[in-house]
Every structure is written in structure tokens, then in C-alpha cells.
Amino acid sequence: GQWILSNKHDGQHNEYPVSGVVNNRLIKRVIDRTFLDKDKVRWIIDYKTSPHEGTDLDDFLDEQRKKYEPQLEEYAALMRGFGEKNIKLGLYFPLSKGWREWEYRK
């Protein structure tokens, strides 16, 4: 979690409002956290407080990724519109220290 929250990243923003046209629709969204890492990859992080109850943590995190992947990919499409080329997406669950990441490839 400390890497995500570090204030040493370039181009970092919290609660970052973005808007643009995706699939011929004007959309406005707020990205929880975004920054450039040392390799100039744009990270888009969404914080989730969903409680993990009963199931295996990895199964829970995989389910959450499937659930929120369209939302984060929409954020990435907006950032791509601003010229960002290398984008990675992440879901961070601070309560369970859970993490899922993937590369945006569209």
C-alpha cells in the first residue's frame, strides 16, 4: 500500500476528475488515484472497501476485478484520450491489504 500512496510519483493526483468521449458518449468520472511510475507507466488505482467475508481472499479479489474491470477500463480510455500510452490498472483493498493489477491493452 505504501507504494500506491507515496507522494514521490510524477503526475500524481487523488480524486482526479476526468471527462471525455468514449464510445461516442461524453462521460465524466473521478479517479481515486493516478500517477506515473519510474518507467513512465500511468497507473490508475481504484480503492475498494468491499468486505471480504467467508470466501478465499484470492477468489474474492478475482471476483472484484471482474466486477470493476469495465469501470477501470473506462477510466483508462479517458486517460488514453489525453495521450497516455502505457497504462496499468489496479484495485486496492486497504482493509484486507488486497491488490489486483492488469495492463490496459485497448
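(ticket continues) Second input and output from the same batch:
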Amino acid sequence: MPVDVLGLTYDFWFRLAEADDNLEAGELPTEPDADGLLYYVRFRRAGDTATPTWPDSGGTADIEVAVRAAEALAPSPIRWEPPAQ
């Protein structure tokens, strides 16, 4: 099963809740890493760079946490490949 670890420059789930006027009182976006990214796991449409899709996980500022989340959610071992250029 293909899987992507996406790096986004914004908190996807926070922005979605904000757009839907569904934020909790005092809710703030997750802080990105030093490169300004939050990492998400995506199984649906993995590898498809032409069509925007929703991530299948919450965001984390630690790419290793996202990798471990992908491995925990996958039904079989993941063979990781370098990112597409």
C-alpha cells in the first residue's frame, strides 16, 4: 500500500476547523518545525501530486513521528523511498 509523508507549511486540520467556524475556544494551530513544516501521513491517493487530498493523520512538527505513525497505521511493512524531486 503506498503512503506519503507530506510536509505542509500550515496546520491543515486547524485551517479546516477555522474555515468551518468550528474552532474550540483558545485553540491554536500546531507549531511547525524549524523549517516551517508540519508532517502528515497520507494513504489515499499517495503518490498523486496533481490532485490535492486530505491527510490521514494529525500534523506533527517531527518527521520521525509522522514516519512512525505511518508504520503503525499500515497493514504491512513500508519500504521507504527517497522523496520525489
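Agent notes: Helices lie at 12-19, 63-73. Residues 4-73 form one domain. Closing as not reproducible unless the customer responds.
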